[in-house]
Write a structure and sequence with these properties.
By secondary structure, the protein is mainly alpha-helical. The protein has 18 helices and no strands. The relative contact order is 0.17.
Length: about 400
């Protein structure tokens, strides 16, 4: 039976039903961590407030993006070879240290170096968290579980965005301190909440035939999905790259930007729990195609906005696309991965987002500065539609793989 049409028993069909304790530990840890995750969305504003020219801001963001290219692959290998619990704690504590370093340096070379290190550390924990969910959650509930994890992140984001805008007005150093504290708190929650006995249970799932990098690279279906994720994520990254620039150009300031993007988190908090259960009924690749197109359209509409209300309306559009796709990529990676490579498959999907931390700032700032805002927003539309077409194209192959193996 297709995993697209498999349903949980009636007792487990509620938005919060049927999920085990390790999942909820990750859920609450992610919530705490994301409440503190305030630096990324304000990094452009922080750097420009220091008097750094926009092209040099792009270099700093690109350095972070280059580091991010290494982050999830490193986390995936550690997840499968060493263990989920260790990788989670290592990544979170390393990220906290790198954040404090990034907030403490001021010269361009040091900013570039610190941004690179933060990029390396920031996402090490993500494959471990995603693989742990795949280990402990029953397959019919995977889309719901990943959707709820996404919900926790955005519940924290909705709080963080408004809070961060006001904190930034008092001093950007507060953002770095809060972000580092959130990472540390998540590490403590994992250390105290996931016992070593659970870690041994989780690690046993990676025993078995060796699965190396070559085998991963031979999976053309996975590589195609990663490329499409990169296209989508390059568009989505503009929420932290050129949207703050557009809001600033409209005279709305850091607090205005924080309030505008907080709508994204608020909508997800309200709609996501119900949406995850509903979306799980449909074919994942078709839903992804629609979602990626909607995100591209929503981002493109930003070019028509001038007032705070108009910006909010554009955020509503691309947020609906984001809600539709939440949980689908994690569930797809879990379905496509051999058990011995769950961490690395999750890391491969995450690599598309990590690579977008490089492509998004470079393309976004360059086009916005040299081609103008209109060209930047048109590019978002084109890439969004391109990703949608690609998702529809590889959909039949994804369905054949899932139907055959499950």
């Amino acid at each position: 039976m297709s995993t697209e049409t498999t349903h949980a028993s009636p007792a487990r069909t509620g938005p919060f039903a049927g999920l085990p304790r390790p999942f909820w530990i990750l859920f609450y840890g992610s919530l705490v961590n994301r409440i503190g995750g305030v630096v990324a969305g304000f990094l452009v504003l922080y750097l420009t407030a220091m008097g750094i020219p926009l092209d040099q801001v792009g270099l700093v963001l690109a350095a972070k993006g280059v580091g991010a290219l290494l982050s999830q692959p490193l986390g995936g290998v550690l997840t499968d070879r060493v263990g989920r619990r260790f990788t989670l704690m290592l990544g979170l504590l390393s990220s906290a240290g790198c954040l404090m370093l990034l907030g403490a340096v001021h010269s361009l070379p040091l900013l570039i170096g610190a941004a690179f290190l933060h990029g390396v550390a920031a996402d090490i924990f993500r494959p471990a968290a995603a693989a742990l969910i795949a280990d402990v959650v029953e397959r019919p509930l995977l889309t719901k579980a990943y959707g709820l994890q996404f919900w926790a992140i955005n519940l924290g984001f909705s709080v963080a965005s408004v809070m961060a805008g006001h904190l930034a007005d008092s001093g950007y150093w507060l953002l770095f301190a809060l972000n580092a504290t959130g990472c540390t708190a998540f590490a403590v929650i994992v250390g105290l909440g996931i016992p070593k006995s659970a870690e041994r249970m989780v690690k046993s799932t990676v025993d078995g035939p060796v699965f190396g990098l070559r085998a991963l690279l031979r999976d053309r279906l996975l590589l195609g999905l990663v490329l499409l994720v990169l296209v989508h994520a390059t568009v989505y990254t503009q929420a932290e790259v050129i949207i703050p620039l557009a809001v600033k150009d409209s005279g709305l300031g850091a607090a205005g930007y924080g309030s505008i993007v907080a709508v994204n988190g608020v909508l997800i908090v309200i709609l996501q729990p119900l949406a995850s259960t509903w979306v799980a009924r449909f074919d994942r690749m078709r839903v992804l195609a629609i979602a990626w197109a909607v995100v591209g359209v929503g981002m493109a509409l930003t070019g028509l906005a001038e007032t705070a209300l108009e910006y909010v309306l554009t955020v509503v559009v691309w947020t609906l696309g984001e809600i539709a796709m939440a949980g689908l990529l994690g569930a797809l990676a879990a379905d496509l991965a051999p058990p011995a490579a769950r961490g690395r498959y999750q890391a491969a999907i995450g690599f598309g987002f990590s690579a977008a931390a490089l492509t998004g700032p470079l393309l976004g700032t360059w086009v916005y500065q040299h081609g103008g805002p209109g060209a930047a927003w048109t590019g978002c539309l084109v890439l969004g539609l391109l990703g949608a077409v690609g998702a529809l194209a590889i959909g039949p192959a994804v369905r054949r793989r899932i139907y055959t193996e499950h």
